[in-house]
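Researcher: Please predict.
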Amino acid sequence: MSEQVDVVVLGMGVGGEAVAGALAETGLNVVGVEGRLVGGECPYWGCIPSKMAIRAADLLAEAGRVDGMAGHAEVAPSWEPVAARIRDEATDDWNDQVAADRFTGKGGRLVRGWGRLAGPGRVEVDGTTYEAGRAVVIGTGTSAVVPPVDGLAGTPYWTNREALEAKELPASLLVLGGGAVGLELAQVFARFGTRVGVIEFADRLIAAEEPEASELAAAAMSADGIDLRLKSKATAVRHDGELFTVTLDDGVELSAERLLVSVGRRSDLSALGVDTVGLDPSAHSIDVDERLRAGERLWAVGDVTGHGAFTHVATYQADIVVRDILGEDGPPADYRALPRVTFTDPEIGAVGLTEAQARDAGIRVETGLAQVPSTTRGWIHKAGNEGVIKLVADADEGVLVGGTSAGPTGGEVLGALAVAVHGRVPVETLRHMIYAYPTIHRGIQDALRDLG
């Protein structure tokens, strides 16, 4: 059985839903195919529920900072309102009807099921082949990587999904992975009273970011009582029905009630039939051009493109895909100023290249560093004011190519750095602009003075 349509969007996560909805609103016959939930990871287990938990945990930390500044405060942590708020946001225990209705309300048609490419312009779902005359868009996202650790498979380990679905918190938790997601959840659980340990193979946390950010994150985790095991590899896992025991490569054994696996995410292209359109099913991502084209009448959007597993990347790419399918002009994809935020406390925001990445690219680098506690607003903030602002400049071009903003509201301060990197604003222009006083973002001016 086959059916002629204009567009098939395979995977209705953040990017896929944005593409499908926008094209349906133009009057095209659009079929969106989704085997899980419309909206993808972000609204149900990712960005939004995790930040709800982080907000709650940060409130507890702030209450603990009252002493010495505003009297005394005592709090009694309770996970119950957090779990209830997450379930409410996820629409009645992870029901996507609101999102589905949002798409169909724009004129699209939702097909529930697991789609598979069946040749150029063809997508097969449960025995029906949809033949797209205009475009096929792949937006199937990624899933959590489960490393091949001896004994891990078959145990009731958590990924970020199970961690955020928990109605009650465990007494103890081991986190396998010291990246952004692992650290965010580790800090949340620790602040609600769980005994937490983090196991990281690299020699520092959030190793893809600046060393200064890693040091800040490690200090913050330690301050929350989290046991950090850096340069450590898990070689075996066992579960006795009550406790997990993780054996490290140095022979040390760590035990906890729960084990959270957070070592990254990966696309599974082999299940999509990409070989039928000339793509490599063993690849970790789909190779796309600057217009997100992956082949004839074929586009890809979101995590599956390998340009960063971020909602803001998926929605940015979706706009480009929609314009290209409709034949409209617009700028191509540009990832020079890709922003990213690790929502720990302190927040760690970064944009563009790190110092090491810039040097590896052959750029003559200058850096500038400012300490947030040394800024006037940081000094006023006092408790919980840890942070740094680091600038990475191309000395020959006289522009910033990267920056890090870590500290209170670090993700918000990042906005100014993202504009500077994206717009290639001359460093001299940045030196002579007016920075509001007293603000944390005024620390950018201090970092500029240190640039050299």
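Model: The mean pLDDT is 96.
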